[in-house]
Design goal:
The protein is about 0% helix and about 55% strand. With about 240 residues, it is an all-beta fold. The protein has a single domain, classed as Jelly Rolls. The strands form four sheets. It has a seven-stranded mixed β-sheet with strand order 1-20-17-22-15-13-14, with no helix packed on it. It has a seven-stranded antiparallel β-sheet with strand order 2-3-4-11-6-9-12, with no helix packed on it. A hairpin with a 4-residue loop joins strand 7 and strand 8 (about 85-90). It is globular, with a radius of gyration of 17 Å. The two termini are about 25 Å apart.
């Protein structure tokens, strides 16, 4: 019998700094909820809106796998490994912070906001050499499909990280249904709805709701309306 934990959109932490409007699915910065620290290896799921021309100054990370998924607008990236790039809607970026990295991120546009998800996973191996990767997705693959965007394997579709995790983006038409099959025994799945309404087995999820599921092998995911969502299969122990 599957075990679930439901995180409704309006139960998330929220911080409005003016230049940054952030919602936290898990404890982050000044928002702390002892029941919402992590889901397995998934430590951070931030839903950020960055004002035009604003961003995060140079700051450090270590021993974390950091995934950025732009939803609207662009994000300029610069890091201590010498990488300088701009990620756009439809791209995915990953940094393995490992032994330590410093980076900055800002919205390069003077008149457009940037919306993105930033996701942190604990790695399965500590103190790896830092690395950076970004790719542009074929978003047509997401239509009525689970399109893989991340895995542990450099030769697979999407970016790769130092963790036994698989991420998928999906864009379902209303009433479309598809079965999700667990990739690795003992993993859990965190479903996050970007827009629209879906059901995961019998649980209804609306825009920006999250659902963590463990102790399952397959799940039926059905779109009630046109819907976009993110699936994150991650280890529950790490």
């Amino acid at each position: 019998m599957a075990t679930t934990v439901l995180h409704k959109a309006d139960t998330r932490g929220h911080a409005d700094h003016g230049w940054l409007n952030a919602y936290h699915s898990f404890s982050f910065a000044s928002w702390y909820n002892p029941e919402r620290v992590q889901f397995g290896a998934l430590r951070v799921l931030n839903d950020d809106t960055i004002a035009a021309g604003m961003g995060f100054g140079t700051h450090p990370h270590d021993n974390m796998e950091i995934i950025t998924i732009p939803l609207e607008g662009d994000l300029a990236h610069k890091d201590s490994m010498g990488n300088e790039s701009t990620i756009k809607t439809g791209d995915v970026q990953v940094m393995s912070a490992g032994t330590g990295i410093q980076h900055s991120e800002f919205n390069p546009n003077a008149d457009l906001r940037t919306k993105l998800f930033q996701i942190w996973l604990f790695p399965k191996t500590r103190n790896v050499a830092p690395r950076y990767q970004q790719i542009t997705l074929d978003t047509t693959e997401q239509k009525n499909n689970f399109a893989q965007i991340l895995s542990p394997n450099p030769d697979d579709a999407g970016v790769w990280i130092h963790q036994d995790a698989w991420f998928y983006l999906a864009d379902f038409s209303a009433e479309f249904s598809k079965k999700y099959e667990l990739k690795k025994e003992g993993n859990g799945l965190y479903v996050f709805v970007i827009s629209g309404t879906i059901t995961v087995d019998d649980q209804v999820l609306e825009t920006r709701d999250g659902l963590g599921i463990t102790d399952f092998k397959t799940l039926d995911i059905t779109a009630i309306t046109d819907a976009k969502f993110l699936l994150m299969e991650i280890p529950m122990g790490y």
